[in-house]
């Protein structure tokens, strides 16, 4: 994730209105089991990625990852500090509130961290998967900012991932 954030920072321009998050980049379709969106506000770049992966239980899962890259490292740490005590959150997905489990993932070299979230229960998992399977894009509310992630290629990514571990 750190390499992605650093490479995205190199792509951003420095003259952006600091008042609102502005679109900076967006995946056109799912590749390598993920799709991402970047929004810029001042010197900060909010990166939201949706990935297919395996959970600790070996189950195939969908993860929403959120990080802020900045020249001020504290901003990255602040996102995760808020989640250390609270392991659950609610995200609005295509207009419906869904419960998510969340955790803070520290980079191995200690140079930052990001927030990783996955639907908390079967109803949430089914709903989120259905949104990506049946729509061209899925809107996720992050900090009350609507982030639209493409769903093009999602079915191929999900189906080719390999399923649950034995």
Brief description of this entry?
With 166 residues, the chain is of the alpha+beta class. It is 23% helix and 42% strand.
Instruction: Give the distance, in angstroms, between the N- and C-terminal Cα atoms.
Output: 27 Å
Number of strands: 9
Please work out how many helical segments DSSP would assign: 4
* Rg for CA atoms: 15 Å
- Series of H and E elements: HEEEEHEEEHEEH
Report helical residue fraction.
10-25%
Biggest sheet descriptor: 7 strands, antiparallel
Rough outline:
globular
What does this structure look like?
There is one protein chain. By secondary structure, this protein is an alpha+beta fold. The strands form two sheets. Strands 1-2-3-4-7-6-5 form a seven-stranded antiparallel β-sheet. A two-stranded antiparallel ribbon has the order 8-9. The model is unreliable at 1-19 (pLDDT under 50). It is globular, with a radius of gyration of 15 Å. A hairpin with a 7-residue loop joins strand 1 and strand 2 (34-41). It has helices at residues 2-11, 74-81, 122-134, 154-160; strands at 22-26, 34-41, 44-54, 60-69, 88-93, 96-106, 113-119, 137-142, 145-150. It contains four helices and nine strands. The protein has one domain (2-156).
Keywords:
alpha+beta; 166 residues; globular; 4 helices; 7-stranded antiparallel sheet; two-stranded antiparallel sheet; 23% helix
Note the topology.
Elements: H1 2-11, E1 22-26, E2 34-41, E3 44-54, E4 60-69, H2 74-81, E5 88-93, E6 96-106, E7 113-119, H3 122-134, E8 137-142, E9 145-150, H4 154-160
Antiparallel strand pairs: 1-2, 2-3, 3-4, 4-7, 5-6, 6-7, 8-9
């Amino acid at each position: 994730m750190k390499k992605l954030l650093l490479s995205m920072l190199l792509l951003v321009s420095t003259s952006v209105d600091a008042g609102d998050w502005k679109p900076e980049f967006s995946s056109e379709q799912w590749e390598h089991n993920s799709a991402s969106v970047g929004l810029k506000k001042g010197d900060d770049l909010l990166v939201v990625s949706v990935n297919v992966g395996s959970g600790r239980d070996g189950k195939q899962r969908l993860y929403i990852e959120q990080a802020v890259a900045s020249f001020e490292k504290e901003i990255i740490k602040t996102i995760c500090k808020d989640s250390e005590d609270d392991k659950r959150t609610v995200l609005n997905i295509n207009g419906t509130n869904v419960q998510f489990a969340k955790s803070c993932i520290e980079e191995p070299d200690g140079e930052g961290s990001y927030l990783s979230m996955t639907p908390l229960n079967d109803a949430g998992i089914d709903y989120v998967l259905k949104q990506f399977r049946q729509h061209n894009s899925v809107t996720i509310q992050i900090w009350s900012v609507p982030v639209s992630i493409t769903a093009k290629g999602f079915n191929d990514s999900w189906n080719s991932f390999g399923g649950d571990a034995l």
